[in-house]
Amino acid sequence: MKFSRLVLVFEEMEKKSSRLAITHDVSEVFKTCSPKEAKRVTRLMEGIIAPPHEGIELGMADKLAMRAIEIVSGKSGKEVAATYRKKGDLGDAAEELLAQRRQHALAKSELSVEKVYDNFYKIAASGGGGSQDHKVKLLAELLSNAEPNEAKIIIRFVTGSLRLGAGESTIIDALSESRSGSKELSDEIERAFNLTSDLGAVAELLFEKGMQAVSAIKPKPFNPIKPALAERLESAQAIIEKIGGGGGSEGGAAGGVRGCSVEGKFDGFRLAVHKKGSRVEFYSRRQERVTHMFPDLAEAFKKQVAADEIICEGEAIGFNDATGTFLPFQDTMQRKRKHGVAEKAEEIPLKLVLFELLYFDGVDYTQKPYRERREKLLKLVKNAGGKGNRIDVAPAVIAKTAAQLQRFFDESVSTGLEGIVAKDLEAEYTAGARKFAWIKLKKSYSEKLADTVDVVVIGYYYGKGKRTEFGLGGLLTAVYDDKHQRFRSVAKIGTGLSEAQMTEFASTLGKIAVKKKPDDVDSVMEPDVWVKPRVVIEVNADEITRSPIHVAAAEKGKGGKGVDETNIGAGGGEGEAEGLALRFPRLVRLRDDKAAEQATTERELIKLFELQRKSRGQSSE
Ligand code: AMP
Fold first, then answer.
1. How far is Cα 454 from Cα 457, in angstroms, rounded to an integer?
2. Contacts of 206 (CB under 8 A, 6+ apart)
3. Does residue 475 share a domain with residue 427?
4. Residue at which a domain ends, from 417, 442, 467
5. Could you give the number of structural domains in the chain?
6. 270 CA closest ligand 1 atom index
């Protein structure tokens, strides 16, 4: 397939906001793909060249990309930099400079998707001495064969500034549409994606072996599974009503109340463990391989878990053997380092508290009910609950009444846990989805908001006085609109940053600063500096309020609806609110284990707003 065909779609995506139209365009491209092309096109549409667990990322620095532009355009470094400054976007600069190029490459050949993808892959995979020159050479080779508009897309792709109009759900719908003419295959394709975290591989399989093969996909060790996520409810009573089974059509009158399982909510580092034979790997909630951080837990796992092939999940958390208490998140996170892991393992021993079984010796447990998964997990872990063990299984009780659930919650909080996660005994493991199979109830820091919120930094302010020393006075943050893949402003955070945090943030954010508001950001607030929406922080707030200045959950001019879907906008207090905002937001911590797309979504924010109303007895604010 010609790369120019894909470029047309990327250009359309940058213009169009209609998801329907983008889905259709992408499905038309898929229709002409071979299986191998389907894989590459899928990856390029996702903005990646390999699934996250392969650890191969492109992210080329602007400086290197500029060198390649220099070579191919015949311009000086100064001229390239000046054009970049003028345009504010390196892709646009490349387009202009290459259009001016007088001498065309002698043997210019039309770029194929395969060639572009393969060079991207080589750029990302090349490391070690002299690798920078090699990267520049590979990029220059592409640029010298590229039309100016192709060069623009190539440059944006390698520097990570391409506005990807096709989110994963759009690509999934497009795959379905290309095969069946409708979205009817989307759910099955998504299931396969959630189990493999590799949409490119799923697309290839679909085009090579058909839908049956995709439906037959089951978990496989070393292919990380997208984590199940928890819903929220406002009280123990609400949880029992929702999943306790008391009022259910079958379980009710005749069978008695079935209850739900309640586990402590451990505030550590979520880990998926994959084992086959003697190989053990750990994956983060972003599906990155993080085995190197936990050599002690890998050894303990081999000793304590009686399984040749297994995938299970739990929370790694700092533990004080002497006092039997868990350590705060910050201590656990000290393992997140490149060097000195062994010393840290001595200093802050971790425990891995398992709470899920997903696969065991050829059997897919994701489709079995929770009660069966847990029973098997307890059998496989030796010495669960025993003293001094490093691998444990989360203690659980069955709660049939709100009072029982509340008691377990209070006990959990008193031993230093964050709260509880209640689990539906009959539910399957809902990979990649936030469903009522799991419901969390957290100790409320503020007593007002039912949970903290994970927001994405979209810009920062220089600040005044002493704070200017650090170049950082406040952060402008956003929630994620997962339907339209947009980041929509929700809070300006001006307090709660220590000096050390400010210095750290200033340097992290400086690296992702951009000259103008990124295309996928919605905000009427203007920070001093815009940044790419990458960094996630957890914030606590007093409440969620309607806001005339923030656009989260506001009705959108662009691409769809917000608040109106839930009627929050209608029938509310005085006047028409434009959006929702966090009131008195305070930074709790950096969530570098979360990708921007894993931040709190706009829909969750709306739900939290509803929870807040309910817990205030339906009164208007
Ligand atoms: P949250 O990140 O606040 O949405 O809450 C869900 C997270 O709680 C999961 O992603 C896990 O990392 C964590 N967690 C802690 N303990 C448990 C547990 N027993 N069951 C499920 N998740 C848990």
1. 10
2. 38, 175, 179, 189, 213, 214
3. no
4. 442
5. 2
6. 12
DSSP string, 64-90: HHHHHHHHHH---HHHHHHHHHHHSSH
Within 269-353, residue ranges assigned H as helices are: 295-304, 329-332, 341-347
- Mean pLDDT by runs of 10 across the 621 residues of the chain is 92 78 93 96 93 86 94 94 92 93 67 96 83 93 94 93 80 96 96 95 97 96 95 90 68 63 93 97 93 94 95 93 77 74 80 97 96 97 85 95 92 84 96 92 66 92 64 88 91 75 80 88 92 92 86 65 40 52 86 91 91 61 34
- Let me know if residue 428 belongs to a domain: yes
Q: Output the pLDDT for position 505.
A: 80
Write the DSSP assignment of 391-405 as a string of letters.
EEE--EEEE-SHHHH
pTM: 0.79
- Residue 464 placed within a domain: yes
**Whole-angstrom Cα distance, residue 386 to residue 453?**
35
- Residue 390: C-alpha distances to residues 153, 294, 320, 421 (Å): 49, 12, 11, 22
Question: Does residue 440's CB lie within 6 angstroms of at least one atom of ligand 1?
Answer: yes
Q: How far is CA 10 from the centre of its chain?
A: 23
Q: Which of 75, 152, 226, 265 is catalytic?
A: 265
How far CA 492 is from CA of 473, 496, 516, 546, 596, in Å, comes to 10, 12, 18, 14, 17
**Backbone phi, psi, residue 506, to 5°:** -55, -40
Q: Which of 552, 254, 235, 524 shows the shortest CA–CA distance to 401?
A: 235
Q: What's the pLDDT score for residue 495?
A: 57
* 597 secondary structure, DSSP code: G
Residues 315, 440: Cα–Cα separation, whole Å: 15
DSSP letters along 123-158, please?
HHH--STTHHHHHHHHHHHHHHT--HHHHHHHHHHH
Has 39 been annotated as catalytic? no
Residue with CA at minimum distance from ligand 1 atom 6: 230
Q: Is 269 in the pocket of ligand 1 (CB under 6 A)?
A: no
